[in-house]
Amino acid sequence: MRVLRGHRMTRWLLFFLTNTFFLVIIPSAMRNGDEKNENIDDLEAVIPEDVESGEDLEIEDTESLSKEKMDTLRKKLKSCEKEKMEHLEALQRTKADYLNSKKRLDEQFARDRERITESHVMELLPLADSFGAAMSDPTWQSADKTWRIGVEGIHAQLMSILKSYGVEAIDATGIPFDPNEHEAVSHEEGGDTVTGVLQKGYRMGDRVLRPARVAVGPKN
Question: Does pTM surpass 0.70?
Answer without folding.
Answer: no
